[in-house]
Write a structure and sequence with these properties.
Layout (H helix, E strand, L loop, with lengths): L4 E5 L3 H12 L3 E5 L3 H20 L5 H9 L1 E4 L10 E4 L5 H14 L5 E4 L6 H5 L8 E6 L8 E6 L5 H13 L3 E6 L6 H17 L5 H12 L5 H8 L1 H15 L8 H9 L15
Parallel strand pairs: 1-2, 1-4, 2-3, 4-5, 5-6, 7-8
Antiparallel strand pairs: 6-7
Helix pairs in contact: 1-2, 7-9, 7-10, 10-11
Bound molecules: acetoacetyl-coenzyme A.
Acetoacetyl-coenzyme A binds next to helix 2, helix 7 and helix 9.
Length: 283
């Protein structure tokens, strides 16, 4: 099966990025969210990104127009009735994801693959609410989606080889490289990345160094494109905390305990770039 029509559930930073790369790869894309204003916001960010490509001479205006014309907007989940693949990219909440997958399983055609962009929640558990666990898979894009080359593809316990092969082919068409991992807490990307970020937060919490100093050390000393605290603000501190909690609970080792300063910031509503304040301020 070749994927022709893809639906993205959740038009936030990740969902809109996924819609952009899928439409750029020539797929018909439906962008869905619960409110029209959320869908519009996601669509505007796609158009903004594509316009920048046109301004910089990386795309022609006609190409942009074609890409945009392949995107339709939706607030109705029943629009999943004739899609080949759905990529869910809503908040990291198992209850919400389970509800969505249960509904999608009823609405979408039997051949459709149901994928989650979850950054750490178990794919096997999400699949268990459907009658097609062989067609449920994790497609974990990295942020910013249009730029990052990796898709971490997570096989749940029952995910079939056929489903994996279709997703691997889809990743290639979107100009990405799929890397296969199995379903364990945090998968691989976040199992390695988040403890580093958490440790960087401990360095600030314990007064070892300022956020600026920690970031400078990792940028200049390790050649990271962003320091870990700038990256934490970029990912969202609520998402960072939720991934650390999944690692801590799922792997049961105290080395994964979330830093109290991370908890405090999240409780204060300091969620990073998206809320205007995290380790840094974003006026
Ligand atoms: N959306 C689309 N394109 C973007 C973008 C965005 N949000 N941000 C940057 N870009 C593109 C632009 O095309 C830009 O080029 P132009 O300015 O010519 O248009 C190009 O990237 C380079 O951007 P900048 O020059 O502004 O800045 P930069 O060179 O520092 O690169 C970066 C920006 C690519 C984000 C880089 O800093 C980087 O790689 N940072 C690390 C990102 C990272 O680690 N991501 C993984 C996060 S973890 C995750 O996603 C998993 C999870 O589950 C939490």
């Amino acid at each position: 099966m070749t994927i022709q029509k893809l639906m993205v559930i959740g038009a936030g930073q990740m969902g809109s990025g996924i819609a952009q790369v899928a439409a750029t790869a020539g797929l018909q894309v439906i962008v869905h969210d619960i409110k029209a204003e959320f869908v519009e916001k996601g669509f505007n960010s796609i158009k903004k990104n594509l316009s920048r490509d046109v301004e910089k001479g990386r795309k022609r205006q006609e190409e942009m127009d074609e890409i945009v014309s392949r995107i339709t907007l939706s607030t109705d989940l029943t629009d999943a009735k004739d899609v080949d693949v759905v990529v869910e990219a809503v908040i990291e909440n198992m209850q919400i994801k389970s509800d969505i997958f249960r509904k999608l399983d009823e609405i979408s055609p039997p051949h459709a693959i149901l994928a989650s962009n979850t950054s750490s929640l178990p794919i096997t558990e999400i699949a268990s609410v459907t009658k097609r666990p062989d067609k449920v898979i994790g497609i974990h894009f990295m942020n910013p989606v249009p730029v990052m080359k990796l898709i971490e593809v997570i096989r749940g316990l029952a995910t079939s080889y056929e489903t994996y092969a279709i997703v691997e082919d889809l990743a290639k068409r979107m100009g990405k490289t799929a890397v296969e991992v199995h379903d364990f807490p945090g998968f691989v990307a976040n199992r390695i990345l988040l403890p580093m970020i958490n440790e960087a937060i401990y360095c600030v919490y314990e007064g070892v160094a300022t956020p600026e100093a920690v970031d400078e050390i990792m940028k200049l000393g390790m050649n990271h494109p962003m320091g870990p605290l700038t990256l934490a603000d970029f990912i969202g501190l609520d998402t960072c905390l939720s991934i650390m909690e999944v690692l801590h609970e799922g792997l049961g080792d105290s080395k994964y305990r979330p830093c109290p300063l991370l908890r405090k910031y999240v409780k204060a509503g300091w969620l990073g770039r998206k809320s205007g304040r995290g380790f840094y301020s974003y006026p």
